Amino acid sequence: MLLPFVKKPVSITFFRTKGPTFRDNQQLKTDRSVKWTNCLIIFLSFAFCNTVYAQASQPGGVKISGSVTDSTGQLLPSVTVMLLKSADSATVKITSTDQGGTYIFEDILPGQYFLSFTTSGHVPHRIQLPLINAPFTADPVRLQKAVALLEGVTVVARKPLIELKPDRTIVNVDAAVTNVGATALEVLEKSPGVSVDRNGTISLKGKQNVLILMDGKPSYLPAADLANYLSGLSASQIELIEIMTNPSSKYDAAGNAGIINIKTKKNKVKGFNGNVNLAYGQGRYYKNNNSLLLNYRNGNYNLYLTYSTNISKSFTDIYAYRWYYKEDNKTVTNRFEQPSYLASPFTGHNLKAGVDYFLGKKTTLGASVTGVHSIRKTVGSNSGEWINQNNQVDSVIHTNSDNKNTWKNLGLNLSARHAFTDSKELSVDLDYLTYDLDNRQFYQNTLTGNNSYTDGLRGDLPSTLRIFSGKADYRQTIGKDLKMETGWKTSHVKTDNQAVYESLLNNDWKPDYDKTNHFLYSETIHALYVNAQQQVSKWSLQGGLRFEHTGYNADQLGNIVRKDSSFSRQYNSLFPTAFASYQADSAHTFSFSAGRRIDRPAFQKLNPFVFLINKYTYQTGNPFYRPQFTWNFEFSHLYKQTLITTLTYSVTNDYFSQIFFSDTNGLITYTEGNLGRMVNIGLSLSSQLAPAPWWSVTLQANLNRKRIEGVVVNSIAASVTQLYMNVSNQFRFKGGWLAELSGFYITRAQNDLQEVLDPTGQLSVGLAKQIWKNKATLKLSIRDIFYTQAMAGWTDFQQAREYFKLTRDSRVATLAFTWRFGKPLKGATRKSGSASDEIKERVGQN
């Protein structure tokens, strides 16, 4: 970065433990070379994998095909079919059945093979093939329902890391060695199309406002608090992650970018069983993630319990440099340079327990309780320099900070499911959630220079959240293939947020009523939906409509310097969805989807008061904040169940964006509001390859062109083209060895009108070994081995500009041990579901 106040061209290089140092441009070229060399590794992985795959495909090979049905003879789509060598069970190729239940393997070398068939809710099945030396069509395979498993039979199915479905992408967390010892947030960061910014906001395919569900339930939390929760949840507790960019009307309409559903583990094995996971990681600081899963199932009962603990320490290294201008936005008046280092020890506990009671084969009752308790302390000490027009330091401010966040969460769920017949089912869910958050802040600032002084600020910011939600869903199959769904949902939220501040004046702490705040908010949402799906020859059609009524009331309580104020609003919205899929032949399937979605303002961002971030940065809410609405359109092509190409187009009106303002005292204030319109055009490629029997590759690439138009004092327009790439290589060797090489890369990005982010990425490696007759696993992984996953960028304010770079403890080596115990699989438990589908996402989204 070139600094205008230095007489000769120099640049800033960032180190992990220090602020910026100045070096010449030749050294900068070397640094850039190293940076781009690291990024190039990921590019080469894409190119090399494609080249090898092309070479591995033998035009002179033969074709193997067949079909799969259920126990009634109905053709089954989306069944995972694996072609394996008879000699050593090495995987040759992987595919899945199309909408007509058929599968095809092409360009197969002559030899002896067998086929493996797996799909949810059915017993895995294998068939031995005769010697293959000519095109071969296997006899139809009939899969039995999972409840037909016999006691004493052990079934082991190996899941791929990424499963590509027409309506969603599924990430199987345990399939990646580099997920060992990781947190849920770290797993999300490297999931296809997902990114996390410096405030903890999660984006999907370049779009913010993603609805995050936990076992079908929203967290009802602001982005920063949600990020803290996910960073305290061990990846060993997660079974899979579902990514849906255009969900049906059955789901809440919130989230213009789509839905990410994180499903936690729940054992299905008869008898007493479970697993233990112990993991220790070391970056700059320690990371200790341990978890326990217990399950007991016998007769009509299924009892389960999961517990995890996270004891770790992390850091955040922030460098900020601000330029302040005169009204012409060209003449620099002064500058402010501030490197900051924050250390954060963390202790977190997560507990989930529940019971399923089976009233015969058609009715299931369930109850569960979840609990979270965590404490995070953040301690920092930094100095900032004010630089005048003569390029001289005229004052220095030193800041000490000590913040403590305590988090308590309790959740209760009651559910009932009844199948009247095989084609009629009713489910009911009731949820009650409580959050108690306490944030204690302390800041002390000492200014040295022409006007020396010392001031201090301490605050107590407790908040409570109470949520009740209920929903009912009914589905019925009419005739042979018309599937109807309808349902109702109601949610009610009450939140109480306080901020009590005291300022240090003349060595005495006095109430600071200008910053003290008390905000009450309540919201109710009622929803009805209907959805229909039918198979017509080669066409699969689906359409739905969702109605939502929203009403809220907010009260800003006054004090001796401020009067009470309140505001409220009610509005109705319709959300149509449409899906169409056409199977041209066994190799090509074309799909189209369209839907309207909403993003409601986060509760806390409606609070019209100022929140302290540091001495020179504040945040304020906006009571006039309106929801934004988005139309999403997608057209996709699925080729041989291995390659999905998707074109996307979306238009967002009343677009949300952060807004930054500055004043003559150097204070930066930011808020959010409805600025204008955003248009997003994208192209994505997703592929699963098997270049060799021991090597499988998953490739993801998303290219987005985004244009944002709005008004911040003056009209502003911004456009950016962003490329996101993700590659995962899985290597399986004899003797139970598994290795992984994975990484992602994101080019220059822009989510707000006034902020642009520089490119970032990382590369990770892992190694695993099955031991104790495959009952235990040892794993070693290193995440971000080149330490490139930093976040840097530029923010433009009114008469000011800031460069920032944020680095965390992302390079971590982890050693983990997993032990699995229990009896064979028998039967399937109920599906996990909940009434709470959106609100957890919206407590504040800071």
* Poorly predicted parts: 1-34, 36-59, 147-157, 825-833, 837-846
The helix content, as a percent range, equals: under 10%
CATH superfamily of the largest domain: TonB-dependent receptor, beta-barrel domain
Instruction: Report the CATH architecture of the largest domain.
Output: Beta Barrel
- What is the overall shape? globular
* Alpha-beta content class: mainly beta
On the 0-100 scale, what is the average pLDDT? 82
Quick one: how many beta strands? 47
Rg estimate, integer Å: 28 Å
GO cellular component, one term: cell outer membrane
InterPro entries: Beta-barrel_TonB_sf (IPR036942), CarboxyPept-like_regulatory (IPR008969), Ig-like_fold (IPR013783), OMP_b-brl_3 (IPR041700), Plug_dom_sf (IPR037066)
Subcellular location: Cell outer membrane
Organism: Paraflavitalea soli
Write a structural description:
By secondary structure, the protein is mainly beta. The chain has three domains: 11-56; 62-148, Immunoglobulins (Immunoglobulin-like); 271-842, Beta Barrel (Maltoporin, Chain A). Helices cover 6% and strands 63% of the residues. It contains three helices and 47 strands. The chain has a 22-stranded antiparallel β-barrel. It has a six-stranded mixed sheet with strand order 11-12-17-18-15-16, with no helix packed on it. A hairpin with a 2-residue loop joins β27 (482-505) and β28 (508-511). The longest helix has 32 residues, at 25-56. The chain is globular and about 90 Å long. It starts with 10 loop residues before the first strand and ends in a 25-residue tail after the last strand. 38% of the residues are buried.
